[in-house]
Amino acid sequence: MDFHQLAADIKQWGAELGFHKVGITDLDLAAEQDALQRWLDAGMHGEMDYMERHRELRANPDKLHPGAVRAISVRMNYLPAEAGFARTLKNPRLGYISRYALGRDYHKVMRKRLKQLGDRIREACADLDFRPFVDSAPIMERPLAVKAGLGWTGKHTLVLDENGGSWFFLGELLVNLPLPVDQPVEEKCGSCKACITICPTQAIVEPYVLDARRCISYLTIELKNAIPEEFRPLIGNRIYGCDDCQLICPWNRYAHLTDENDFSPRANLLAPELLELWDWDEATFLKQTEGSPIRRIGFERWSRNLAVALGNAPADDDIINALEARRSEASEMVQEHIDWALERQRKAEHKTEKQVLRLVRAVERGLPRDA
Question: Which compartment or compartments is the protein found in (predicted)?
Answer without folding.
Answer: Cytoplasm
